[in-house]
């Protein structure tokens, strides 16, 4: 058995070099005589791991000093509640609904106050990003919420919405570290790590300091207060320590790869190979309007359910895993995150070409 | 460098055979061509991992069919809120405060209703377990809460409290799977896995089905509802998948070791070696009343801060790690969880004897 090309939308492919290092260090991490899994989170060795991870992330994303970096648990889904519980001072927030994850966040927001859907692309199965240049932002909105890359539908905000001065909160779970971002444009930028960064069980929250206050909604659990985690540098309680260690290795790998500018180039090149193929193919087509296409998640269809199923089956047999579209959408989806090598995309396109030739009359 | 004897209170020592397997499978798990870290949580391969882990835990603990097993995030600390949010129908709960973790749970309970401290051992620095045979249980208490093994202070409930028919909720973070328990005596039995079972980032909640209801406190986040996780078999959102996989390996290891009866014998033997030494030593002494001593966490002191510090330093140099007591207590603490080999305890006692001889006049 050897490694397959894994197009999973998350948990997803990780850099092979990172996995090799983790395997080599499993029984004894550096001079410590123990695995990172066995290490007290209050030890010097672990402190160095988490501090280095944070610093490398700060370097990669160029995070301004007035932002905290938090390594938390509960996944992106728990942020859907944590955000309103901490930020809804006026109990009003505006949501832009561009897919299932934005919708879930929006529904959760309603538990805590007046959550408004100020734009949506539900009318066309979330196959585009609405024009967000002049939206009816609420006078007293505590924040404007977006899901910046829509994992299921394969769309991406190429321009951030005009929030008319309101705090922007963005879920970047499926585009984290795939290209440079200007952190200063956000109040909160967060994501589960299990797509582009590491193993499931860690969510990274980058939050502007003025948004971290004691003044949370009444009934907010201690563990759901940003301030508790910020004041304790993500060590209020036992953190998901091993996951953070793997994230740290991926940050080092990204630095070695040349940083986020280089990753962007690399990701654009990879995505172009697949989109160019889809655009010339008579059998396969992408489902997203061109200008909103994600670099990370590429959904496509043949137009025939049987042909889709046949393709997925044969692709799997040929070593291309997890090409099935999300259960809510059908068709195919190739997630081509940072760690997917360009060879994987080239091989996929070659396979698709062969499949098309064999299955056309 | 070789592996040290790691007496950390958590995250803590894991079975070496488990770590070796994890290292060997890091790049390719069985026939899948990928790491478990890279695996979709909706894949057949992962479904088998999580289902097998659950079944093995059910076998080990003899969990009745009317209990659900949930693999969650947020650590034990998040349960401090999740328990009242889900169980406080009358908004009343009774807490037995036997240490810092019980106290934290009690304080968190106050956010959600009337939390009563019905017994405490704070008067003697939590060095004993109060008599719980006839406590003033509240008429309308939704549950009675205990921390069954007190990690910091080294005490353990040898008899469960008489709850007078009320639901018992127990934090077993630091004694999970260390000996057989009668699950049917509990409403909820839960713990973070990072002491006796696996890497930090997974909390296991074993909960009687009738306690899983839609009727949670208003404002309860979706992610903090037991029902959501129970209905979705711990796959409502992306679980801490790799951590669960390691827990599953530890369950297999426990089965190979002969199950919980055998672990209890083994743990009693290990603890006796250390306690017997402490009892005969003129320099070292245990801090807990004999009848309430934990099999897992053994705090001890010399009576002199300087001598304590010297001991910890020399022990570290000799390959005994993490013997420093909790920052809130001082002195020493040896955590001797399931995975600590008996050789480790013997070696420690030998070292303590040598230290005593060298440092006595
Ligand atoms: C964009 C986005 N947000 C949120 C989530 C939910 O993440 P989690 O499973 O960590 O709660 C996902 C999961 O796929 C996602 O793709
Ligand atoms: C008995 C007990 N309960 C709860 C906790 C808190 O666990 P966590 O750090 O997973 O929140 C600990 C941590 O050491 C503990 O020992
Ligand atoms: Mg989506
Ligand atoms: Mg086409
Ligand atoms: Mg304690
Ligand atoms: Mg003595």
From TrEMBL, chains A, B:
It is found in: Cytoplasm. Pfam families: Aminotran_5. It is an enzyme of class 2 (transferase). SUPFAM superfamilies: PLP-dependent transferases. The modification N6-(pyridoxal phosphate)lysine is found at residue 195. It catalyses: 4-(phosphooxy)-L-threonine + 2-oxoglutarate = (R)-3-hydroxy-2-oxo-4-phosphooxybutanoate + L-glutamate; O-phospho-L-serine + 2-oxoglutarate = 3-phosphooxypyruvate + L-glutamate. Pyridoxal 5'-phosphate binds at residues 76-77, 101, 151, 171, 194, 237-238. Pathway: Amino-acid biosynthesis; L-serine biosynthesis; L-serine from 3-phospho-D-glycerate: step 2/3. Residues 4-348 form the Aminotransferase class V domain. The keyword Thylakoid does not apply. Its cofactor is pyridoxal 5'-phosphate. Binds 1 pyridoxal phosphate per subunit. Keywords: Amino-acid biosynthesis, Aminotransferase, Cytoplasm, Pyridoxal phosphate, Serine biosynthesis, Transferase. GO terms for molecular function: O-phospho-L-serine:2-oxoglutarate aminotransferase activity; pyridoxal phosphate binding. GO terms for biological process: L-serine biosynthetic process. GO terms for cellular component: cytoplasm. Catalyzes the reversible conversion of 3-phosphohydroxypyruvate to phosphoserine and of 3-hydroxy-2-oxo-4-phosphonooxybutanoate to phosphohydroxythreonine. This is Phosphoserine aminotransferase. It comes from Anaerobium acetethylicum.
């Amino acid at each position: 058995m050897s490694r397959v090309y894994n197009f999973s939308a998350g948990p997803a492919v990780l850099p092979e070099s990172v996995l090799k290092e983790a395997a080599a260090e499993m029984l004894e991490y550096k001079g410590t005589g123990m695995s990172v899994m066995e290490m007290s989170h209050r030890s010097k060795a672990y402190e160095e791991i988490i501090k280095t991870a944070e610093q490398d992330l700060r370097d990669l994303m160029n995070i301004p000093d007035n932002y905290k970096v938090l390594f938390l648990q509960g996944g992106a889904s728990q942020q859907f509640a944590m955000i309103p519980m901490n930020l809804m001072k006026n109990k009003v927030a505006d949501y832009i609904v561009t897919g299932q994850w934005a919708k879930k966040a929006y529904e959760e927001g309603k538990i805590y106050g007046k959550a408004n859907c100020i734009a949506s692309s539900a009318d066309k199965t979330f196959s585009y990003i609405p024009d967000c240049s002049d939206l009816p932002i609420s006078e007293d909105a505590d924040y404007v919420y977006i899901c910046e890359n829509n994992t299921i539908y394969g769309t991406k905000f190429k321009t951030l919405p005009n929030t008319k001065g309101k705090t922007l909160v963005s879920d970047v779970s499926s585009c984290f570290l795939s290209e440079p971002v200007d952190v200063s444009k956000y109040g909160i930028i967060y994501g589960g790590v299990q797509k582009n960064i590491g193993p499931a069980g860690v969510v990274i929250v980058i939050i502007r300091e003025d948004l971290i206050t004691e003044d949370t909604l009444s009934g907010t659990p201690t563990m759901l207060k940003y301030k508790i985690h910020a004041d304790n540098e993500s060590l209020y309680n036992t953190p998901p320590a091993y996951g953070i260690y793997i994230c740290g290795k991926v940050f080092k790998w990204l630095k070695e790869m040349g940083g986020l500018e280089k990753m962007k180039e690399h990701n654009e090149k990879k995505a172009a190979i697949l989109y160019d193929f889809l655009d010339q193919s008579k059998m396969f087509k992408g489902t997203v309007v061109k200008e909103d296409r994600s670099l990370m998640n590429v959904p496509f269809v043949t137009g025939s359910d049987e042909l889709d199923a046949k393709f997925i089956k044969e692709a799997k047999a040929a070593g291309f895993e997890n090409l099935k579209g999300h259960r809510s959408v059908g068709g195919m989806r190739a997630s081509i995150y940072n760690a997917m090598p360009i060879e994987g995309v080239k091989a996929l396109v070659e396979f698709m070409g062969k499949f098309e030739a064999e299955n056309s009359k």
